[in-house]
Amino acid sequence: MSITKQAVIQAQLPAKLAPQDAAEAFAPSNIALCKYWGKRDAELNLPINNSLSVSLGHLGTRTRLESAPDGTDRVYLNGVEQAQDQPFAAKLLAFVELFRAGRALPVHVHTENNIPTAAGLASSASGFAALTLALDRWLQLGLAPEVLSAFARMGSGSACRSLFEGFVEWRDGIHDDGMDSHGVPIPARWPGLQIGLVKVATGEKAVGSRAGMQRTIETAHLYQSWPLQAAADLEKLHQAIASRDFALLGQTAEQNALSMHATMIASWPPLLYWQPESVAAMQRVWQLREAGLAVYFTMDAGPNLKLLFEVQDRPAVEAAFPGLEVVAPFGD
Ligand code: DP6
């Protein structure tokens, strides 16, 4: 039995909490170039492998916490109040409760996502990162970014990378309480790096990441090779970032994503997140590469593609993918 999330968080908090009237925070969404797939501890979201992502600049979640004047918890998403028996509000309030631990501190949570709805991007990473930062400010905790990153991880693993801008590595850590498993910013910028969001489908997935990774570990023999693949890819990504080798970055990210999907497809029941349009988009990327364009893709546990390319190739990529939503994580 692992240590509980609440015990880990309470160990870092003062005995008396002093909430402000209100506090807010922003956190960016992130896209993994080396994926997190598989947990060694499901309670604390401790990963089997290290992962590496790039944060999406101004695209993400802004969360405002207000000490509730009406004495009742309330949760709003983009201005609309959410029912507390529905997963969105239930998960947020459960996370807030890890901090309150029974203390009577009713709160209103206002969450605004500016991730384009058409992008089909998960918002749980930026959502839990912004909520963690807002809790730190609301309760005047003044905790270090690494501690907050480890806390955000307990909301959703990938959220620990959204505490930081730019390239971020999430180290697996070795401690039982997981406090050494958090995001670590990589001090390198890549101006001109572009991410194109190819929307195949939005809406709820039949099997979320959490259940998907568990099924893969339990049923896919192929999963045994995943930690080795991830370790090798992480090494290559560090090299690519240090030497600004775009071909190495793109190739590694694409192969990493396809390797992760291979483990999912080899699960039982099979987990295939791709739609025919996903495969058509992959083939278009491969055709563009054969024609000499440096464009690559990555995919999470869903049907949408995220294209990787550099700013000078943006017109050609946009011509091949009309209506592409483009993000420049480091500016153009
Ligand atoms: C495929 O972070 O959503 O996007 O920790 O269970 O909340 P939980 O999972 P989550 O999984 C993300 C999986 C991924 C790869 C990645 O972002 O690294």
UniProtKB/TrEMBL annotation:
InterPro entries: GHMP_kinase_C_sf, Mev_decarb, Mev_diP_decarb, MVD-like_N, Mvd1_C, Ribosomal_Su5_D2-typ_SF, Ribsml_uS5_D2-typ_fold_subgr. GO terms for cellular component: cytosol. Gene3D superfamilies: 3.30.230.10, GHMP kinase, C-terminal domain (3.30.70.890). The lineage of its organism: Bacteria, Pseudomonadati, Pseudomonadota, Gammaproteobacteria, Oceanospirillales. SUPFAM superfamilies: GHMP Kinase, C-terminal domain (SSF55060), Ribosomal protein S5 domain 2-like (SSF54211). GO terms for biological process: isopentenyl diphosphate biosynthetic process, mevalonate pathway. Keywords: ATP-binding, Lipid biosynthesis, Lipid metabolism, Lyase, Nucleotide-binding. This is diphosphomevalonate decarboxylase. Residues 200-316 form the Mvd1 C-terminal domain. One of its GO terms (molecular function) is diphosphomevalonate decarboxylase activity. Belongs to the diphosphomevalonate decarboxylase family. Pfam families: MDD_C, MVD-like_N. Residues 27-179 form the Diphosphomevalonate decarboxylase-like N-terminal domain. It comes from Marinobacterium nitratireducens. Its EC number is 4.1.1.33. PANTHER family: DIPHOSPHOMEVALONATE DECARBOXYLASE.
